[in-house]
């Protein structure tokens, strides 16, 4: 069992979809999605936790990875798979 993945997202978000595809390619079967477009209070909570207002905002376990660019950079640096393993 790897680390739990949580992603703040909206219904129409190409970077969210790209992040999801990258995570799935690494074997992530389940992503907890929090729709900030449907739950405005979740966007406020996300902004307070991350200091960012854009989606996606991705957490792997307790680690805030950031958005898609951050996730992609972490993967290229070899840090994504160890984080996913927990």
Detail the topology: elements first, then pairings.
Elements: E1 5-9, H1 14-25, E2 31-35, H2 40-50, E3 57-60, E4 63-66, H3 68-76, H4 80-85
Strand order of the largest sheet: 2-1-3-4
Alpha-carbon distance between the two ends: 8 Å
Question: How many H/I helical runs?
Answer: 4
Major β-sheet annotation = 4 strands, mixed
Mean pLDDT over all positions: 96
Per DSSP E runs of 2 or more residues, the count of β-strands stands at 4
What do you see in this structure?
There is one protein chain. With 86 residues, the protein is of the alpha+beta class. It has one domain: Glutaredoxin, CATH 3.40.30. It has 4 helices and 4 strands; from the N terminus they run E-H-E-H-E-E-H-H. The protein has helices at 14-25, 40-50, 68-76, 80-85; strands at residues 5-9, 31-35, 57-60, 63-66.
């Amino acid at each position: 069992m790897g680390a739990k993945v949580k992603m703040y997202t909206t219904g129409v978000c190409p970077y969210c979809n790209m992040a999801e595809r990258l995570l799935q390619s690494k074997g992530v079967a389940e992503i907890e999605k929090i729709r900030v477009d449907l739950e405005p209070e979740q966007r406020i909570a996300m902004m307070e936790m991350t200091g960012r207002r854009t989606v996606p905002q991705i957490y792997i376990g307790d680690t805030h990875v950031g958005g898609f660019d951050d996730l992609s950079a972490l993967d290229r640096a070899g840090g994504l798979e160890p984080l996913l393993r927990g």
